[in-house]
Amino acid sequence: MRETVMRGLFEGDPTAACLVGSDGAILECNAAFGSLFGFAGPGEARGARIGTLLVDAGPWRRAAEAAAGGTAPDRLEAGGRAKDGRSLLLACDLRSAADPETPGAVLAWFVDVTERRAMEREMVQAPRSQTGARLVRAIGHDLGNMMMVIRGFVEVLVRELPEGSRGRCWLAQIRTASDRAAALGGELLAAARPPDPSLEELAPAAALEACVPLLRRAAGPGVEIELRAPGGDRPTRTNRDQLEALLLALVSLAHADRPKGTRLLVEAGAPAEAGAGMVLRVTGSDPGRAWEARLPAPDPPS
C-alpha cells in the first residue's frame, strides 16, 4: 500500500515530498526532498526526524496532528536547516496519508521560499529607502542653499559695520557656523547621492560657454557676463545639471548684491588635485566680493 502511494505521489515530482510517521520519523521521501535538505539521496533521509530539519518543530507538530485528524491546516511557513548548514524558509502543505499501515502519518510537500521572501522584502523596503534618500538629498540641497544666502548677507553686513566693532565679531561667528552647516549639507548630499549615469567629462571653459544663455536670463538685461577658466581647461567628470544649478545660484546671489548696469565675472576650474570636482566663482563689480562654491567630485566606482 505504502509503496503504491509513494510511486503515485512522489516519483518524478519536482516538489520536495515526504511521508512522516506519527513519531516524526521520515518513512519515505522523493529525490527532491533529499536534495532540498542536503541528503545524498532519498535513502539517506529515511529514518531522520523531521524535527531535526526544522528550526521550530512546534508549529509543525500541531499542523501535522490536525492533518492526521482529517483537518487540513493552512499552508505552514517554517524555518529549516539543511545538513550543509544552509538556512531555509519553507512553505509546507500537509495532508493525512490515510494509510492503515501507518496510522497518524501525514504527507508533506515542501517548497523553498527563501529567495522569494527576500525579494518581497526588498520590494517593500526599496520605496522606503528611495524616499528616505530623496528626503536626505532635498534637505542637504536646501541646507546648502540657505547657508549660501546667510553667508552672502553676512558679507553684506560686514561691509556696513566699522572695523573692530562688536557686531563684526558676532558676524564672524555666524559665518563660521554657516560654513559648518554648509559642509554638513554637502555630507548629506554625498551620503544620499545615487549612482549617476549622466556623469560626463566637462572642460570648464566649454561648460561655461554652454551655460551663457541660462546665465544671461538669470542676471537680467544690461549685465555683462565675462567667462574665465583659470588654471587651464583640464576636463573633470561631473554632472551638467548640477553644474548649471550651482552657477544659477551663484549668479542670483551676485545679481542681488550688484549695482545696476554692472558686470559679472563667472569662473570655473578643476582643482589641481585629481578627482576634486570643479570650483565655481562669480565676482560682481566689486573685486573683493566673490561668491564661490565647489561642485563635488563623483564617488569613485566600487
| Biggest sheet character | 5 strands, antiparallel
- Tally of alpha and pi helices: 8
Assembly state (oligomeric): single chain
In total, how many domains does the architecture comprise? 3
Strand order of the largest sheet: 2-1-5-4-3
How many E strands?
11
Computed structural class: alpha+beta
CATH topology of the largest domain: Beta-Lactamase
Distance between the termini: 61 Å
Helix content: 40-55%
Q: From the alpha-carbon coordinates, what is the Rg to the nearest angstrom?
A: 35 Å
Question: Any idea what the shape is?
Answer: rod-shaped
Proportion of beta-strand residues: 15-25%
Secondary-structure element order, as H and E?
HEEHHHEEEHHEHEEHEEE
Report mean pLDDT, rounded to a whole number. 77
What does this structure look like?
Helix 5 runs antiparallel to helix 6 and helix 7 packs across helix 8. By secondary structure, the chain is an alpha+beta fold. The model has no long low-confidence stretch (mean pLDDT 77). It has three domains: 2-112, PAS domain (Beta-Lactamase, 2-Layer Sandwich); 124-194; 198-302, Heat Shock Protein 90, CATH 3.30.565. The chain is rod-shaped. It has helices spanning 2-9, 31-36, 42-45, 57-68, 114-160, 166-192, 204-219, 240-256, and strands spanning 16-20, 26-29, 76-81, 87-96, 106-112, 200-202, 224-228, 236-238, 263-269, 278-283, 290-295.
